[in-house]
Structure formats: C-alpha cells, structure tokens
Design a protein that fits this description.
The complex is a heterodimer of chains A (373) and B (504). Chain A contains eight helices and 16 strands. By secondary structure, chain A is an alpha+beta fold. In chain A, a hairpin with a 2-residue loop joins strand 1 and strand 2. With 504 residues, chain B is α/β, with parallel strands linked by helices. Chain B folds into five domains: 44 residues; 55 residues, Glutaredoxin; 215 residues, Rossmann fold, CATH 3.40.50.11540; 87 residues, Ubiquitin-like (UB roll) (Roll); 83 residues, de novo design (two linked rop proteins), CATH 1.20.1440.230. Classes of the chains: A alpha+beta (373), B alpha/beta (504). The interface between A and B is large, with 51 and 49 residues. Chain A: Keywords: 4Fe-4S, Iron, Iron-sulfur, Metal-binding, Oxidoreductase, Repeat.
C-alpha cells in the first residue's frame, strides 16, 4: 500500500500562525492566510525566479530581505510583510519600475488591455522618490509581422516570466532575455519575426505578462465589458475560454461614431488551476475567434427547397428532414449504407452522442471521428 | 527545460568559434548542442566579447585609465584610422591608459611594479615560482582535517572581496553528503583597479595551482575549473604551461586532477560566484539567489568550493610554514595581502604587505604620491571614495567596512587635487550601469538612474537627480539580488558625502 507521509511546518507571518506542507514557499503560506504579497514575475506554473523583487519580505534571522516566492517555510520561522522596511522597499522599487516604463497621459504605467499589475501595485503601495524617465536603450522588434503577438519593450518590466513560461510550460523556447543591464529586453533568435522561430503563437506570453507588454495585436486598446465563459470547440480537450465581449465599432479602427456592435474582442483562459487547461490555450483557442462574429456564419438551420435554394427553418423542421432522409436510406439499402462522421471540433460528450446515434438509433457501426487515426 | 543530451556548457566556446553573435551563429550552435536557438542568442547577447565581436582596439575606461587620459588615447587611435571601442576596466591599471589590440592582446606599455621578495610575505611574487608541489605532498601526508585546522589558525579570509573565512567554505564542502564535488578558481578579476590575480597567474601560477590542488584534495573533488578573465590572454598561456608541469605531481600525489580552464567573455558580473557558475554552465551570467550557497549547491547543483586566485595562492605557504606563521604576518587582520595601487602614485603595481597597512605606507612602497592627494578608493569601484582625512585607517576588511567602504579586492586608487570628484564618480557609475546584469530591477534601473543623476549635474548643473541618490541607493542595497547592485551607488554617494564642494 502506498503511504504518503506528508510533514508540515508551522510558521508565523505578521504574527499569525499557519501550517503548510514542508518545502512550501513563504508566498504560498501567506496566501493560505490571505496575506497579500505583491508579485510580478511569479506564476505557479513555472519555477519561481525571485527576480522582480516585488515580493521581498523580512524573515527573522536573515540580514537581507528575502523573496517570498522562493524562500522556503521552515518550522518556527517568523516572517513580516507589514513593516516600514518592506513598505519603503516596495515604494522604492515601484519608483524605479515607473521610471523605466511607458506612462500614459496621467503619468500611470500605460494600460495595454490585459494585466496592469504595475499600475495596480503603484495604486496599492505607492511610490517613493519621483524619478525622471531613464529611457533605457532597449531594442524592439517593430518589424515583426506575425499577426497575433505584439511586444512593447517599454511596457515590459523584464521579469522574464514569458521566457520561462515559453520554456518550462510550452517547451518551445522561442524567446529569450536579450542584452544586458538597462538594455535587457525580450528577444528572439537573431531578432527574427516570431513566425520564423520555434514560436507556436500560443500567446502564453500574453497570458502571463504582468504588464501587458506582450499583448494581442488584433485586440490592442479594445475594451472588455463582459466576460462569457465558454468551451473551446477546436478540439476535444475541452479547454475553457473566457470570451471578452464589448460594444465596438463594426469595423475596428473606425471612428467611435460608427455603428456599434457587440462582439468578442479577445479570448483568455480562466485562471490557472481552475479549469482543465490550467490557464493555457493554443493558437486556435486564443486567436481564432473571428468566426464568432463573421457575416457568413450559419446561425440557424437551412433547408434546401424545391427551388434549389437554402431557406431558413426551425430546428424541429431541420431535424425532421434529416431523420426522414436517413431513415429513407436505411429502408432502401440497410443500416450499413449509413456512415456517421463527427467533427474534431466536437467535445468528447458530443462525440459520444454521435456514436450513440449511429449504433443505437440507426444500428450501424459505421461511425468515425475526423481526428481519429 | 533542458533537452536530454543537450550540451549547454559548450555553447559559449562554440559561439566564440562561430565569431560571436553573428546572424546564423545561434542556429548553428543550437544544431551542434541541442540547446534552443533563442536561448543561445540570449547567452551571446550577454557577454560583451560575443555580443560585439570583431577585430578592433579596446580602450579601457576604468577610473585609473580615465585619469591617465584614456579619452585622449582613444582619440589618437581614431585619428590614426584605428577602429576603437571603449570598454570596462581591463585590469591593467598599472599600465594606464591601457588598451587591448584586435586579438585581445595587451598593447605594449610600461609594466607595473611588484614588491621585492621578503620573508614576511606568503606569496612572494618576486620569487621564483616553485613547481615542487611539496606543500601538496605535506597536505596529503597530514590529511584534510589538518589542512582545515591550519587554515582556521591562519585566519585566512577570502581575498576576492568578501573576506569570508576560508576554512568555513572548505569545511562545508568537505562535509557534504553528495560525493561529487567541484573546485572552482575565480580568476575573473575585473573589479576596477584590481590586477593582483593577474600578477599571481603570470608570475607564480604554480602557487595558485598548488593551492587549488590542496583544495581539491581537501574537498574530495576530482575536477577543478579555472574561470579566467577572457582579456587575460597572457595569464591563460602561463596557466596552460604550468598545468603541463603540474600534471605529474598531481598524478603522483592525489591520483590526478582534471583541470578545465574556462575563459570569460567580457562580463564583470561573472566575478560574482554564482554568476560565474552560470557562465561555466553555459548560461547568461546572472547571479543566483542565495541561499543555497555554492558550498551546498554550486556547479550543476553539486557542492562547490570556490576561491579567489590570491586566496588559493596563500594556501601553500600556510601548509608549509603553518597557520600561526601566516596569521602573524598580518597587522590588524591575519596574513599578508596583495595590494594593487594605481592612480596618482609614482610606481603603480602590486605590493605584498601586512594586512592592515595604511594608505601612506602603501604609497611609500609605491614611490610616493604624485601631486597633492585628495581622495582614495581603497578597494575597487565597489568601495567608493574616501577623503585623505581617512589616510590613517588600516586597509583591512573590518576597519574599512566600519567606514561604510570596503577592502574588497584591495584595488587602491589615489586621486589628487586635479580630479573633479563628480567626474570620478561618473566614471564609476558608468561602469556599474554597463556591467549590471539586468536581472533585477533595483540594479538594472537604479544603476542607470544614478548615472543619469551625476550626468545631469555635470552636463547641465541640474541637481534634481542628486536629491534622490540616497533613497535610490537604499533601495538598490535592499532590493538587489547580488552584491553588485548593493554597492553600485557607493561611488556617487561617497563622492557627494566627502566632496560636496564638487557638487555645488
């Protein structure tokens, strides 16, 4: 019999006691207590790097502030996140980030439509010294013509989370930390277009980027007014999607006075750890959503009439017409004259129902799924 | 995520063979090693000698060289049609203003001085190198614990800059559970104003190799790495020759030792011990978070004993003559010490003196001051500046730390009253901005903020940045991952503190 012996440690954060499994980090222990420790470079799916320095806390017995995301809890450890030293550090660090960041007209870190964690942290923790912009000498890839992913080096905090995600989660390694010192940025091999690299355009870099430096080209500056949870229908995995919906001009880029229509402006994954896809999506799930609002999309059943044209019908009429045709074939030629092929875009449940229809309702084993080999 | 069988540790040398960061080089190296192409490109872009390849003359921009007219030298070279590139300190401050030619060989200049050999020196740079490996034989005979005990008695502090007691590290690696251990020699001497390890490797390579072999014996390591600064071509040659001569002794005494020399490629930060390990492993030289320390999890995660060249060069005499003898050589702290001195003194060079001498004693050894001394930097760029009113302070680890400065690598620079201290601070801040690895924001952004603050003052008499220097320095010290970021404001802070008249 397998026996899992899990030992735990008890530590104290801001005076509150918490018990966590051995090897757990201070950050996770704090979360268990609902104590907020700000992060930029952290994502539970990749190895913690401790490089954004946002999560530094005081640990009794440690001379230096320590990153909560990497520092392991130990028995009797006393951690403080609420001291003036920690608060001053957060303000000082945020001042530096701000001086290195593209700002909007109000002097806030520019919002690119996705995560605004730097702006959020500044709003929560404040800034220290007022610093002039440093105008870091970063190179960009403005020439990159890939259709989906845009990178603004001046909206980047160089936390490298996108690079680590691309390597550790996707095992694609299309991007890298590039250059050194204040010029450090995110680049590709020989600074090529993403389409000419190992990039699979999954857009995970967008999903993890804390400041929206990586973002969806087609969705730049488009708002989110409503989020609709859905299931991706490009394959049978069942990835959950959040469809961002907003009233936008019929033609994106048209003046605001142009006719408005409600449409999907971007697709994201639900939070990691909450659904089967764990925060991940592929190129299709994340970027192929134009069909939803496409003019030629079928939105109702059509039945071809005697005139040879397709005419709108109700579902009852359409299903009756299909049943009539299939039964006719079965009567004339037998059940095995029928074949049922379901789409790879159907869910597992839909595929199951299709074979049930084939075998139980019509009595043939001629059923297939187009993605089967 | 490393692909199975990927040969990451080869990528830097292969990039060099392919001529550095040229289009297509990363793809080629990816094919040869199995490491992702983007990753390789990122590594190449980190190291100056790979990122800016090409045959050209490199002119040192270190403090001493700038004081000695590096700008003028660059202009003269340009005027004569030579392609030149300004580079961070080349570790040739005794030859200021120094330059390397298009093959990274030193452009001939005056050779710095060394102190004459005396019996109260542990290293005696002027003496003939000793290839007998008698100290190694003695160590093998007496056993590892005896060596550690002698190091403890000797009170040997790490000579790389931190001054950490050597026997702690040695003992820690020796007592690890993991049977595979490594010894790494930090010969990436790049702290501005420092050129002592260079002289050890050139004049007494066997001293260092013997210390390294004793370290390997004590630590139980079968492989030793020597990470040599890439710009020290002559040191590399001296080491290659000495290793050949050492081999029979190592085979006989400790059953052989695999010695691998890894060359640096132009990144000061790789002198930081964990950044150096990253470089050997074939990554961007970005320091690791500590703990864990290299003694527990170092090279490829194995216990690793890392020492500076000078630290190891002290070991043979400690083994031969005893820890107590070495301890007594020092004045305020144990041992004798290699002091580098440059700037406004008559005979710049490396002088081995009792640890804890004063600036005046050191300068006397170096032939006296040139002009009226006004300031000195006691231990490399990282130690900032001190006014001459502190000339009586013992140049040791403890006393300088109390002043908010540091002994560091003992690269002492004397600045006389012809130097504007704001300008001197700017030279040092440029260095730190150029050499920040860029991994953590406090250093990456802070070093640039501090450099721009002094720029604005010098170029526009604008004081706005100066008002924030202390607060930014506080954050860099608290928030940075490694020591570089922690001290990178010190030149400007100390110049403003002690020479406020240059900022009025």
């Amino acid at each position: 019999m397998n026996q899992l012996i899990e030992t735990t440690v008890v530590l104290e954060i801001d005076g509150e006691s918490v018990e966590v499994p051995q090897g757990e980090t201070v950050l996770k222990a704090a979360r268990a207590l609902d104590i907020e420790i700000p992060v930029l470079c952290h994502d539970d799916r990749v190895e913690p790097a401790g490089c954004c320095r946002m999560c530094l806390v005081e640990v009794e017995g440690q001379r230096r502030l320590q990153p909560a995301c990497t520092f392991k809890a130990s028995p009797g450890m006393k951690v403080r996140t609420d001291t003036e030293r920690v608060a001053r550090h957060r303000r000082g660090l945020l001042s530096l980030y701000k001086a290195d960041h593209r700002l909007d007209e109000a002097g806030k870190p520019v919002s690119r439509g996705v995560h605004d964690m730097l702006a959020d942290h500044i709003a929560t923790y404040g800034t220290g010294p007022e610093l002039e912009p440093v105008n870091a000498p970063r190179v960009s890839r403005e020439h990159d013509t890939n259709p989906y992913i845009q990178f603004d080096p001046d909206a980047c905090v160089v936390c490298g989370l996108c690079v680590r995600y691309c390597d550790e989660v996707e095992a694609v390694s299309a991007i890298t930390l590039l250059g050194r010192g204040s010029a450090t940025t995110i680049g590709t091999a020989d600074q090529r277009n993403l389409l000419d690299t190992s990039c699979e355009l999954c857009g995970g870099c967008i999903a993890v980027c804390p400041t929206g430096a990586m973002t969806e080209k087609p969705s730049l500056a488009l708002p989110t007014e409503q989020i609709v949870r859905s299931t991706c229908n490009f394959c049978g995995v069942g990835c959950q999607l959040d469809l961002h919906v907003a009233e936008v001009p019929v033609t994106i880029g048209a003046p605001a006075s142009a006719k408005q229509t409600k449409r999907v402006t971007r697709v994201t994954s639900p939070e990691p750890g909450t659904t089967v896809n764990d925060g991940n999506l592929c190129i299709k799930g994340r970027f192929s959503y134009e069909f939803i609002n496409h003019d030629e999309r079928l939105k109702e059943p059509l039945i071809r009439g005697a005139d040879g044209q397709l005419h709108p019908a109700t579902w009852e009429q359409a299903i009756a017409r299909v049943a009539e045709g299939l039964h006719g074939v079965k009567q004339r030629h037998g059940a095995d004259a029928l074949g049922f092929v379901s789409s790879s875009r159907c869910t597992g449940e839909e595929n199951y129902l299709m074979q049930k229809l084939s075998r139980a309702a019509f009595g043939t084993n001629n059923c297939h799924q187009c993605a089967a080999t | 995520m490393e692909k199975k069988g990927a040969q990451r540790s080869r990528i830097i040398e292969l990039l060099e063979e392919h001529g550095g960061m040229r289009p297509g080089a990363a793809r080629e190296v990816a094919r040869e090693t199995g490491v992702p192409e983007a990753d390789i490109f990122g590594v190449a872009s980190f190291y100056t000698l790979l990122a800016r390849p090409g045959a050209r003359t490199r002119v040192c921009q270190g403090l001493t060289c700038m004081m000695a007219g590096a700008d003028r030298r660059m202009q003269e070279l340009r005027d004569s049609g030579v392609e030149v590139e300004p580079v961070s300190c080349l570790g040739q401050c005794d030859r200021a203003p120094a330059a390397l030619d298009d093959k990274l060989e030193l452009v001939a200049g005056p050779r710095g001085a060394i102190s004459p050999a005396r019996d109260d020196q542990a290293m005696q740079l002027a003496a003939e190198d000793d290839a007998s490996y008698a100290a190694l034989a003695r160590a093998v005979e007496a056993g590892p614990q005896w060596v550690i005990d002698e190091l403890k008695t000797a009170g040997l502090q790490g000579r790389g800059g931190a001054g950490f007691p050597a026997h702690f590290k040695w003992n820690s690696v020796r007592t690890q559970q993991e049977p595979v251990r490594y010894v790494v020699v930090n010969a990436d001497e790049a702290e501005p104003a420092t050129f002592k390890d260079r002289e050890v490797m050139l004049r007494r390579p066997h001293l260092m190799l013997e210390g390294m072999a004793i370290a390997a014996f004590v630590a139980g390591a079968k492989t030793a790495f020597i990470y040599v600064r890439g710009e020290f071509k002559d040191c590399r040659r001296a080491l290659d020759r000495a290793i050949e001569q050492a081999k029979p002794h190592l085979d006989e005494l400790i059953g052989g030792l695999e010695i691998r020399i890894v060359e640096g490629h132009g990144a000061y930060i790789c002198g930081e011990e964990t950044a150096l390990l990253e470089a050997i492993e074939g990554r961007r030289g970005m320091p690791r978070l500590k703990p864990p320390y290299p003694t527990e999890a170092g090279l490829w995660g194995k216990p690793t004993l890392m020492n500076n060249v000078e630290t190891l060069a002290c070991v043979p005499s400690i083994v031969r003559r005893g820890g107590a003898w070495f301890h007594a050589l020092g004045r305020t702290e144990p041992g004798s010490k290699l002091y580098c001195i440059s700037g406004h003194v008559a005979r710049p060079g490396v002088y081995e003196l009792p640890l804890g001498v004063t600036l005046d004693e050191l300068v006397e050894e170096a032939g006296g001051y040139l002009g009226t001394p006004r300031a000195f930097s006691p231990g490399g760029a990282s130690s900032g500046f001190l006014p001459m009113s502190e000339r009586a302070v013992p140049l040791d680890f403890g006393a300088l730390a109390k002043l908010g400065s540091m002994m560091g690598s003992a690269g002492v620079v004397v600045l006389n009253d012809t130097i504007d201290m704001a300008q001197a601070a700017r030279w040092q801040q440029i260095f730190f901005e150029d050499e920040s690895c860029g991994q953590c924001a406090p250093c990456r952004i802070g070093a640039r903020v501090q450099r721009q603050a002094v720029d604005r003052w010098i170029d526009g008499k604008n004081r706005s940045g100066l008002a924030q220097v202390e607060e930014v320095a506080w954050e860099m010290n608290e928030g940075s991952i490694c020591g570089l970021g922690m001290v990178a404001s010190l030149p400007l802070q100390s110049a403003m503190k002690y020479f406020s008249e240059d900022f009025q």
